[in-house]
Amino acid sequence: MLSPPAAVVCLLSSAVLAVVEELDHTFKDTRENDVWLVEFYAPWCGYCKKLEPVWYEVGAELKSSGSPVRVGKMDATAFSGMSSEFGVRGYPTIKLLKGELAYNYKGPRTKDDIIEFANRVSGPAVRALPSTQMFEHMMKRHSVLFVYVGGESPLKEKYIDVATELIVYTYFFSASEEALPESLSLPEIPSVVVLKDDSYFTYDEYEDGSLSTWINKERFQGYLPIDGFTLYELGETGKLVAIAVINDKDPSEECVRLKSLIQTVAKDYRQHFNRDFQFGHMDGSDYINSFIMGEVKVPSIVILNTSNEQYFLPDGPTDSLDDLVGFINGVLNGSAQAYGGDGIVQRLKRIAFDARATIMSVFRSSPVLGCFLFGLPLGVISLMCYGICTADSEPDAGEMELMKRETDEEDEEEEEEGEEHRAAQLEGPEGEEEEEGEGEEEEEEEEEEEGEGEEKAAEQKKTD
Ligand SMILES: *[C@@H]1O[C@H](CO)[C@@H](O)[C@H](O)[C@H]1NC(C)=O
Ligand SMILES: *[C@@H]1O[C@H](CO)[C@@H](O)[C@H](O)[C@H]1NC(C)=O
User: Fold this and answer.
1) According to the UniProt entry, which residue ranges have a biased composition of type Basic and acidic residues (predicted)?
2) Nearest atom of ligand 1 to the alpha carbon of 342
3) Is 45 one of the annotated active-site residues of the chain?
4) Lowest-confidence segment of 52-61, 222-231, 454-463 by average pLDDT
5) Lowest-pLDDT choice from 227-231, 237-241, 293-297, 301-305
6) pLDDT exceeding 90 applies to what percent of the chain?
């Protein structure tokens, strides 16, 4: 009676148990000389369950590829002392442990991404490029390539230190002057250079500040497609993000024009803006809707400050390159009007917006499930609040509270991957087979509540 995926998982977990070792209190003493990739999980955590089959695949593939990385998982609730020593704060937490060093994995939880991370981080912090041929080969393979060029030097030591820390983000290479391709001419040797955007840029201690700051700011292409996850990663560079919000599936002339405007600025004004801005385009406004709360049209141009959740919109139409450059300059010199922000009012507004978006999307995709998830609790609570709220003619405040409670339950840490997680969360109750029988009976009862739920949804729509 098992559905095929469940059967596969079942087979997998019995056949390849050894590829993922269940760790216990002895781990701290026995792990010493090995490199470990560990998932810290909680038995009740839905995302952990979702990760489980992926985790076995990761274990199996690393083992079969002959990787020295050992894969394990640890019940962080059972061994909470040890987990907190490793700095585990949410579930699941994925860490690569290498001697004294612990590297956090924050990327998408797919097999390929996790394996790429394990291979990159478990290897040497700086990889040597022994020949020009190898150098050129890597230039083709990596869209952003950091290379130290030269012999032993204090700069090289610094480079190795920084690489040891930032290997979680990208690869680091080194080459001797002889291996340098002819297409590159460096003003001095030794140098640290980044090859990207069909060009290359060298690190200048006086202009660029510390090497790690510079690497952090240069580790993305100057212009790139942005999704929710990239946006979060870009934010970590401390730069503002200038985005053409367009419709990729049905690009109008305006979409194409705005996208190419941003692309041109990214390339031609790199000198001017690269230090403070990252450029790109985004398909639709879904990823940033909780940021801008539906207040940005598609297509349009928006600049986001992910550190304080402010955003900037051009005053008028961006008809020319000059308009756009003027707008960006205005943001830079502080004369442009900032919207949003992380003040308390904005935060409540955002929470309400997110909650409403979540509820609406559930109702849209599955009204019955929507009622089951939200209708019942909302119904009960709103009955309780009914007397108070209606009398005061302040329905907004009451609803805000409700929504806050809903979203507060989500782990703060998970916010960054909100979209994905929300989807995952919603799958939860459906996927649990035990409850299916009961659920069906209850669904009938819930049908009555449905009316109420929809009213609620309609009300929420009005609150903008
Ligand atoms: C972006 O936010 C940070 C953190 O609050 C702030 O220091 C910075 O000035 C902001 N940048 C702009 C251009 O508003
Ligand atoms: C800021 O930049 C804008 C656009 O370039 C310019 O019009 C404005 O005069 C500048 N303001 C200040 C205070 O420098």
Assistant:
1) 454-464
2) 5
3) yes
4) 454-463
5) 293-297
6) 50
Which residue's CA is minimally distant from atom 5 of ligand 1? Answer: 308
DSSP state for residue 276 in the 8-state scheme: T
305 ligand 1 Cβ < 6 A:
yes
243 contacts 288 by C-beta, under 8 angstroms:
yes
User: DSSP states of 397-418 as a string?
Assistant: HHHHHHHHHHHHTS-GGGGGGH
Task: Give the CA-trace dihedral at 406, 407, 410, 412, to 10 degrees.
Answer: -150
Distance, CA of 382 to CA of 191 (rounded, Å)? 65
Q: Which two tokens stand for residue 434?
A: 């035990």
Asked if the model's pLDDT at residue 392 lies above 70, the reply is: no
Residue 372, pLDDT > 90, answer no
Q: Answer whether residue 327 shows pLDDT above 90.
A: yes
Please tell me the distance between residue 308's alpha carbon and the centre of ligand 1 in angstroms.
6
Provide, for the chain, the percentages of residues in helix, strand and coil under a 3-state DSSP scheme, each rounded to the nearest 5. Answer: 55, 15, 30
Residue identifier of the C-alpha nearest atom 8 of ligand 2: 330
- pLDDT band for 464, please (50, 70, 90 cuts): very low
Distance between CA atoms of residues 204 and 114, nearest Å: 33
Query: Is the Cβ atom of 307 under 6 angstroms away from ligand 1?
Result: yes
Q: Which of these, 382, 388, 384, 387, lies nearest to 460 by C-alpha position?
A: 382
Residue 415 has pLDDT above 90, yes or no: no
Instruction: List pocket residues of ligand 2, CB cut-off 6 Å.
Output: 326, 329-330, 333, 335
Residue 146 near residue 215 (C-beta atoms within 8 A): yes
Any idea which residue has 């190795």 for tokens? Answer: 160
169-223 residue pLDDT tens = 999 999 999 999 999 999 899 999 999 999 999 999 998 999 999 999 999 999 9
Expressed in angstroms and rounded, the spacing between residue 327 Cα and the centre of ligand 2 is 9
CA angle 272, 241, 206 (to 5 degrees): 40
CA–centroid distance, residue 307 to ligand 1 (Å): 7
DSSP 65-77: TT-S-EEEEEETT
Whether the CB-CB separation of 78 and 88 falls below 8 Å is answered with no
